[in-house]
Amino acid sequence: VGKSSVLTCSPKSDTIMATWRISSKVGGFCTLGYRADVNKTKRANCSDSVDWKFRPDQDLALEIRQVGIADEGNYTCQLIELDGNFWKTYHLTVLVPPRLILSCDDHGNPVCKAATGKPAAQISWVLESNSTSEEEDHVNGTVTVLSRFTAYSTNMINTTCIVSHPTGNQSKSIVC
To answer: What's the chief localization of this chain (predicted)?
Structure first.
């Protein structure tokens, strides 16, 4: 999320026409086309964040600027060339790093929250515990995971919550 993504479409021989067909999660279909014989481009139903990386007569790569969850979907490059037609399809999945929030509840137990991540994060604790987790799905496709720590012994000093996620792992410690 928030970064640029470049999808390549490498020609095999002399390109006559190139088309990017985009079917994103939100917004329907978008098409970018290029005809080499007249050096002309066309676009239909594409947001401003989706465009050719450079001029298509130099490079057929597609750039998605400031990638968001709505950009998830299939991106297909079709090349019409002297040697035939060629396709390359990408499936774009957007990862959202969760925010780690560690606090103490009213009973003095640590509570770890991995807020609005995609996919859902995994929460574990450094000390052994009888923890319970719950997940809350959000309409934008993100998930918040909440884990409550219950200690086996009452002489705890410091507790560490570990959040594991494909975008990177995080940890925080707390004394309740």
So the answer is: membrane
